[in-house]
Amino acid sequence: MHRIIANQQLAPAVHRLVIEAPLIAKVRKPGQFVIVRLDQGHERIPLTIADGDAAAGTITLVIQAMGHSTKAIVAMPVGGAIRDVAGPLGAPTHLMEKGFAVCVGGGVGTAVVHPIAQALHRAGVRVISIIGGRNRPLVIYHDELSRLGEVRVCTDDGSWGRKGLVTDELKDLCAAERPDIIYAVGPVPMMAAVCATTKPMAIPTVVSLNPVMVDGTGMCGGCRVTVGGQVRFACVDGPEFDGHQVDFGELRSRLGTYKMFESQPCDDGSCKARRAADQITQQQQQ
Amino acid sequence: MPMSPKERMAIQRQAVPAQDALARAANFNEVNLGFTTALAQLEAERCLQCKNAKCITGCPVAVDIPKFIDFVAKGDLKSAAASLMADNCLPAVTGRVCPQESQCEAQCVRGIKGASVAVGALERFVADWARENDAADSACAPATGRKVAVVGSGPGGLTAAGELARLGHAVTVFEAFHTPGGVLVYGIPEFRLPKAIVANEVERLQRLGVKLELNAIVGRLYTIADLRRDFDAVFIAVGAGLPQFMNVPGENLKGVYSANEYLTRVNLMGAWDPSSRTPILKGKRVVVVGGGNVAMDAVRTGKRLGATDAVIAYRRGKEELPARLEEIHHAEEEGIRFELLVAPLKVLGNAEGWVCGIECQRMRLGEPDASGRRKPEPLPGSEFTIDCDLVVSAIGTRANPLLTQTCPDLKLNKWGNIVVDQDLMSSIPGVFAGGDIVRGAATVILAMGDGKTAAKRIDAWLRR
C-alpha cells in the first residue's frame, strides 16, 4: 500500500499526487515511470515520475483524469492509499552535460518535462522551457520550471503568454539561437508538430511516448512503436526516443485502440495541435 | 482382497468428466470437471504397481506415481495427498497442465497395449481432495538462519520457494506483477487452470513462511547485486517473457495482439469477466498464429469471448502441433478451425488502421531441420486471405533482457538465456537460475523440475 501524502488540483482534471514509495524514490531517475493500480479490479496506469524525494521516501505523479481508473485515483483523499505502484520503469533520460536545451511541454506532458529540465539544470545545462495549453488554467508547472530557467508560455486563446502554439514560439526561438537539443513531451500531435519543426533544422529532438501498456517490463508488446523503421517497445527501449525517427501516425492510430471503451472529451488541446501538425506537414510537402 | 493383474487389466481407462463442448465454448468455467472418488478409485486399480516404475522416470519432478495411486486405490486419500505433495509442490497445477501423454503416461506399461493409466487426472483428483479437505503440508525443517531470494513467482519460482522453505531457509519471492503466479495467472486461462487454485497454492507456501514481495521488478527496483548483498543465495526464475512477433507487414495495426498481451488482459487483468473494466478487443473472427499450448489458449479464449470463427494458423501439420493432446481435442470439440500448413505473409488493414484480414500461404513439409522437425516450405502461388478482425501472434517467446541487462556479470548464451552449470548455478557464485530463462520457452513442469533441483543444490551450497 502506498499512502497519499498530498493531492493538489493543478488544472481542470489534472492532479498532482505525492505518494509514499520509498524504494522507488531512492533509485528512480529522470524520464522513468511507474505503473499504478489503485485497487483490485482497476486498470494498470503508466505514469511518468514528475519528481521524487529520496529522503522523504515519496514520488510525485501528475495524473489527467480521463477514464474510470484515473478519475478514481485523483478522487483519492490525502491519507488514502494506492494498492500497487510498480517501478521505476523505462530507460532513464540520456542527459547531456553542457550546452543549451529547450524543453517543450504541452498540457499534462509539462509535468513529464519537469524532471528532465531539473536534471539538465543540475548538470549545468542552460534550459529554456516552452509550455502551453488551450487556456491559462490548463498550463501547469510554470513556477517549478521558472526555477530552472526562462519559461515561455503559449495558449490557444492568448489568456497567458503568446497566443498560439508552442511550435510558433519554438520556431522563433530556434531562429534566434540554435539549441543543442530539444525535449518535447505532450499530446502526440504536439510532439509530431515539434519534430516536424525541428527536423528541417536538424536539431536533435527527444520525445517521451505514452502508448497503451500492460506490464511495463517488455512482456506484452502492446506499447510497440516504430522508430526508424524498427519496432521498439516503449516500456523498456523507451519511453524516450529520437523524435525525428518516430512514426507518429502509427502511434496516434494505436492510441485509438480502446477509444470505444472510454468517453473522452478532447480537452488536452490535441485536436487543435493535430490540425497544426497536419498544416506543417502539408507545408513541407508543398 | 487385492485384485489380480488380470482383473486390473480388464478395467478400461476412465474418461474424465468434462463440461459439454457447446456450453463451455461460451463460458470460462473449467473444462475438465475431474474424477469423482469412485472413478478415481477405479482408475487407480488399473495401475499394475510395477516394481521398476517407468512412469517415475518420465516425470520431471520424479513423483512416486505408483505409491500415491496405490493409496487412492485403497481409498486412503490422506496418505495419497501426503505422498504426492512430498514429491510435487504444485500438484493441482501439474495435474491440469502437464503434457502427461509425453511424460509419465508415455512410459506406462499399460500404454503398450491399450491405454495408459490416467496419471494426470489422478494427480489432479488427489490435489483437489487435499485442498478441499485442508490436508496439512509436511512440516518445515528447523530454521537454518539462511536467506534465499527467489526472483519470479511462476512455476519454477514457487516450487523452489516451497522446497527451500521446507528445508528451513527463509525465502522471499520477488514478483514484478501485482499478483503472484507468473504464467499460471497471466498466461493459462481460467477454463484450464482456475486462478483460485493458483492462489491457494501460493497461500500454502505463505503458510510455510515464504514471504512475497509484489510489484518488485528485479532489474529496475533491485539489481541482482542488491539481492546478493541481502540474501545468502538467489534463484532466478523469471521465465521467457518477451513476445516474438511474426515480422510481417501490418503487424502494428489495431487488432494485432501478442498472445502475452491478449491472455494477460483476459486472465490476469480479468477481462474474461464481463463486469471487468479491462478493455479487450473481442474479435468476431479471430486468427491465432501458432500451434502450441499458448496458441490453443488464445484461440479458445477468442471463441469464449464471442468469435463466430476462431482459427489456428500453423505452419506445420497436425502431427507436429506442439500443444498438449488434450488441448487440441478440446479445441476441436469446441469448434476451433485448424488451418494447417499455413504461414502468415501480411496482416491486412482498413483505412482506419484496423485489422481486416490476414494473407497467408500454404506450406509443405520438407527435410528435417536442425530441430529434427520437418521444415515447412512455401508452396508458390498458394497465397490466400482469411478475413478476420483480430490476429494473435502466439509463435513463442524469448528471454526478457530486463533483469539480465542490469547484471553484466551474468553469463548469457547468444539467445540471452542465462548459462548455468550442472548445479544450476550461474556465472555468479550463489546465484542460481532455472526454468525458461535458462531453457528458452519450455513447459510448466520443466520449470518446476528446475525449481526442485535448484532448491536441493542451493541447500547443499548453503551448507557447504
What does the model show?
The complex is a heterodimer of chains A (286) and B (464). Chain A has 286 residues and is of the alpha/beta class. Chain A folds into three domains: 2-90, Translation factors (Elongation Factor Tu (Ef-tu), domain 3, Beta Barrel), CATH 2.40.30.10; 93-207, Nucleotide-binding domain of ferredoxin-NADP reductase (FNR) module (Rossmann fold); 209-263, no CATH class. Chain A has eight helices and 16 strands. Chain A has helices at 22-27, 68-74, 109-123, 142-146, 166-176, 188-198, 248-255, 270-285; strands at 2-11, 14-20, 33-37, 45-53, 58-64, 81-82, 84-89, 100-106, 126-133, 150-155, 162-163, 181-185, 205-208, 224-227, 230-233, 240-242. In chain A, strands 6-1-2-5-4-3-7 form a seven-stranded antiparallel sheet. A seven-stranded mixed sheet of chain A has the order 11-10-9-8-12-13-16, sandwiched between helices. In chain A, helix 5 (166-176) packs parallel to helix 6. The longest helix of chain A is centred in the last third of the chain and has 16 residues, at 270-285. Chain A is globular. The N and C termini of chain A lie far apart (56 Å). By secondary structure, chain B is of the alpha/beta class. In chain B, strand 1, helix 10 (155-166) and strand 2 form a beta-alpha-beta unit. Chain B starts with a helix and ends with a helix. The relative contact order of chain B is 0.13. The mean pLDDT of chain B is 94. The interface between A and B is large, with 36 and 36 residues.
Low-confidence stretches of chain A: 263-278
Q: What does the average pLDDT of chain A come to?
A: 90
Mean pLDDT metric of chain B: 94
Strand order, largest beta sheet of chain B: 3-2-1-4-16
